[in-house]
Design a protein that fits this description.
The protein is an alpha/beta fold and about 250 residues long. Helix content is about 45%, strand content about 15%. It contains eight helices and seven strands, in the order βαβαβαβαβααβααβ. Strands 3-2-1-4-5-6-7 form a seven-stranded parallel β-sheet, with helices on both faces. β2, α2 and β3 (about 60-65) form a beta-alpha-beta unit. α1 crosses α8 (about 220-230), α3 (about 70-85) runs parallel beside α4 (about 110-135) and α4 runs parallel beside α6. The radius of gyration is 17 Å and the shape is globular.
Length: about 250
C-alpha cells in the first residue's frame, strides 16, 4: 500500500531532479500538492517531460537549468531564489555524478569534478538557502550513498564525497535544530536508474543476489523514504542516515 502524502502549500527544491531518484522525488512531491522546483543539467526535453507529467493534485514542477559544481552556476541559482523572497519548506540535495576508476588511474579532474558536484555544490546551495528554509522551519534531506558508509572499489572520489555528505548532515543537524530545521540523509544502495548503465550486467546480478532482498532497489522506494523524512511524521528525526539498500550493508 502506497502512503498518500499531503504537501499542499509546501515549496521544495530538488537538485538533479530530472532523472533517476530525483525524478521520482519531484513526481511524488508534486503529486502530493507541493510546488517543486527542480534543477537539470543539459537534458531540457527530459525536464519539460517531467514538468508536464506532474501535479495531478494541484502541485507544480518547475525546471531550473543549473550546472552544479560550477560555483558561478550554483551562486546564480541561489541568488535567483533569494530574489523571489519566498519561503522554501524542503531542500533535497540530490544531484550527483560518478567518474569511476581505480584510484591509481584517477586523475585530478576525476577527483575534483565529483567532489565539486556532489559535495561542494551542496554546501553552496544549502548555505545560500538555509535562511529561506529556516523561515518555514523546514526540512533538508541529503542524498548520500552506501558508498559513503562502506566504501566501494573504484569509487574513492564518489565514496569520499558521499561520506562528506554524511558528516555535513550530522553537523548541520546540530547547528540547525535550534531554529527548527531538521537535516537528514538517505543512503541508497544499488538502485535501478541510468547511473547503473555502465555497470557490467554480471556485476549487477552479483549485487542483486548478494542483497537480502535479492533485487535492485526502485527509485520510487527511495523517494518514499525521502517524503517521510520531509513530512511531519518524522518531526522527531534529525541528524540521521536512513539506509535503503535491501540489506546489502548487513552482509559480511
Amino acid at each position: 500500500m502506497q502512503v498518500k502524502w499531503d504537501f499542499q502549500g509546501k515549496r521544495a527544491l530538488v537538485t538533479g531532479g530530472s532523472r533517476g531518484i530525483g525524478r521520482e522525488i519531484v513526481k511524488l512531491l508534486a503529486d502530493a500538492g507541493a510546488e517543486v522546483l527542480f534543477t537539470y543539467g543539459s537534458d531540457q526535453s527530459a525536464a519539460q517531460s517531467l514538468r508536464h507529467s506532474c501535479g495531478a493534485d494541484g502541485g507544480r514542477a518547475i525546471p531550473l537549468k543549473c550546472r552544479h559544481g560550477d560555483d558561478q552556476e550554483d551562486h546564480r541559482l541561489v541568488r535567483s531564489l533569494q530574489d523571489e523572497g519566498k519561503e522554501l519548506h524542503f531542500l533535497i540535495n540530490n544531484v550527483g555524478i560518478t567518474r569511476d576508476k581505480p584510484m591509481y588511474k584517477m586523475d585530478g579532474g576525476d577527483w575534483t569534478e565529483v567532489l565539486q558536484t556532489n559535495l561542494t555544490s551542496m554546501f553552496f546551495i544549502t548555505k545560500g538557502l538555509f535562511r529561506t528554509v529556516a523561515m518555514s522551519r523546514g526540512s533538508i534531506v541529503n542524498m548520500t550513498s552506501v558508498a559513503g558508509l562502506t566504501g566501494l572499489s573504484g569509487q574513492t572520489n564518489y565514496a569520499s564525497a558521499k561520506a562528506g555528505m554524511i558528516g555535513f548532515t550530522k553537523s548541520l543537524a546540530k547547528e540547525s535544530a535550534g531554529v527548527g530545521v531538521r537535516v537528514n540523509a538517505v543512503a541508497p544502495g544499488y538502485i535501478d536508474t541510468a547511473m547503473l548503465r555502465d555497470v557490467p550486467s554480471a556485476k549487477l546480478r552479483q549485487v542483486s543476489d548478494a542483497s537480502l532482498m535479492r533485487r535492485l532497489g526502485k527509485p520510487e522506494e527511495v523517494a518514499s523514504v525521502t517524503a517521510f523524512l520531509l513530512s511531519d511524521a518524522a518531526a522527531y528525526i534529525t541528524g540521521q542516515v536512513i539506509v535503503v539498500d535491501g540489506g546489502l550493508t548487513l552482509l559480511p
